[in-house]
Q: What sequence folds into this?
């Protein structure tokens, strides 16, 4: 690990930034050693203004397009904003097609491109919609003087809440006509949302869906999170959403659930990062050891 | 498995034919690489900035418009200016045989025309990723001899 590269990244050298992120992602350097080089301590998750925001939701609801419009507004306001866009790796070959840049055009604008950094990330071995190493990448970006980090998760369904382990706030993006009112009552991801954006408001059913969501939230404990209507296509509701999201406070509805996810995530990471993992999986597949024995080996420190 | 090698596949210029780029992207994905696709109509500068920000090891350029003699060397030049001399660049599309020596000279290490078996592209990636000094800014004369 080259300390100069880390310092260059903090001084605004984007190549050094990209290389250091690769080092962290590949495990050839650790966030601990980066902290040491920069003389920083581990940061605590804050409840006040957020530094990292996960944007999640089902595939095809328009997460990338919405994020593109938000990036544009925030960058124009002078905020230095990084996007970590996550797409799935093939469980068979390990390969990935990372296509989020196709829809993100905010960075093409010469006037604001220095305020935007985009990095495509494959899920690799991790389960869930956000690889846990992303937490360290976020921390490094914040140390490297990026004001805010957006994490676009893999398109995910109802119960994928692991992003709560990584981001300060969670925004769930929904589309119109996503089932009847009962869908809005189901437990899962929506319970952890600090805000909900119903995108594609240019299509019918969006308004009704937003109403159903709001009604459902109002039945719950505490304050209902904001529910916003946007059309990334027609650029309606975007300015309002950008300003609401920027000021988003912790809804406090999910503090314990978050810490639960963080603990689980930490544990999972220990297993996934073990150098013995592949051998142990082979031993399991061949019936040489039991799952409890495997856990004992992997967790034994 | 091709561990963690990141490859940008880009379409420079105004040409909108991306079937070839998508086939190559898919082939590389299925071979275990992480492929970042830029979408259509990117400027040379945008492509180079993408390679830089994504920390890609390889860049594949696709052109079917006939503008390759201008666009490919321009991308190579900007990569070197940006300090990305170690990135390995390959190209594909409708690139006449006569144009290829000059493109190789500008730093393109392989050119794949229509009819190239996809395995050949994988072979090129595998071999060149284990070689030193084949980046766009390297002094080496080595080029891939493609079959089409």
A:
């Amino acid at each position: 690990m080259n300390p100069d590269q880390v310092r260059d990244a903090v001084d605004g050298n984007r190549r050094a930034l990209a290389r250091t992120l690769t080092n962290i992602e590949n495990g050839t350097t650790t966030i601990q050693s980066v902290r040491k080089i920069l003389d920083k301590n581990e940061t605590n998750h804050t409840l006040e203004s957020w530094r990292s925001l996960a944007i999640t939701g089902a595939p095809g609801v328009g997460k990338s397009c919405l994020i593109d419009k938000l990036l544009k507004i925030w960058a124009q306001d002078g905020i230095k904003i990084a996007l970590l866009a996550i797409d799935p790796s093939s469980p068979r070959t390990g390969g990935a097609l990372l296509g989020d840049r196709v829809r993100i055009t905010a960075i093409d604008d010469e006037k604001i491109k220095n305020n935007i950094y985009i990095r495509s990330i494959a899920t690799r071995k991790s389960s869930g919609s956000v690889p846990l190493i992303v937490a360290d990448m976020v921390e490094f970006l914040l140390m490297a003087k990026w004001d805010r980090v957006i994490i676009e998760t893999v398109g995910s369904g109802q119960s994928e809440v692991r992003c709560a382990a990584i981001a300060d706030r969670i925004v769930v993006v929904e589309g119109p006509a996503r089932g009847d009112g009962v869908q809005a009552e189901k437990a899962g991801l929506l319970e952890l949302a600090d805000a909900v954006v119903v995108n594609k408001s240019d299509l019918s059913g969006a308004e009704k869906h937003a109403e159903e969501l709001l009604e459902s939230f109002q039945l719950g404990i505490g304050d209902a999170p904001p529910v916003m209507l946007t059309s990334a296509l027609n650029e309606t509701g975007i300015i309002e959403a950008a300003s609401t999201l920027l000021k988003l406070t912790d809804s406090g509805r999910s503090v314990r659930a978050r810490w639960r996810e963080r603990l689980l995530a930490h544990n999972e990471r220990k297993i996934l990062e073990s150098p013995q993992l592949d051998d142990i999986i082979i031993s399991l597949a061949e019936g040489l050891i039991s799952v409890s024995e495997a856990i004992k080996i992997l967790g034994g420190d | 498995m091709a561990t963690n090698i990141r490859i940008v596949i880009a379409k420079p210029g105004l040409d909108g034919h991306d079937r070839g780029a998508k086939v190559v992207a898919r082939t590389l994905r299925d071979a275990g690489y992480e492929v970042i696709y830029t979408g259509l109509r990117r400027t040379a500068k945008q492509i180079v900035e993408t390679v830089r920000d994504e920390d890609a090891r390889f860049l594949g350029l696709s052109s079917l418009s006939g503008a390759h003699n201008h666009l490919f060397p321009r991308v190579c030049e900007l990569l070197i200016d940006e300090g990305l001399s170690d990135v390995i660049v390959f190209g594909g599309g409708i690139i006449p045989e006569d144009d290829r020596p000059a493109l190789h000279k500008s730093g393109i290490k392989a050119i794949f025309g229509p009819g190239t078996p996809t395995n050949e592209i994988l072979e090129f990636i595998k071999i060149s990723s284990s070689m030193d000094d084949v980046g766009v800014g390297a002094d080496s004369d080595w080029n891939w001899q493609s079959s089409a």
